[in-house]
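Sample entry (79 residues):
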Amino acid sequence: MSESTLHNWQELANAIILRAVEDYRNAHARNRLRPQQAETLREIRSIEQFFCSEWFEVLCNLDGKRLLSDLKKEMEDTV
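Predicted structure, serialized as tokens:
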């Protein structure tokens, strides 16, 4: 695989991770406005599962559980 191709794949992986973080924050913001909406809670759980998945580990070298823990703390601090 060329260096350019590898870079493009890494950029895509980074974008996926960043989108998941943004989606998680947005879902929590919606949950604060309208608590306990089933669809929002499902989205939050789905994203949490992604952060703890093997797929997440394939995409990056981050510790997904640590990232999730940090995001949960951030959500608590913004309440």
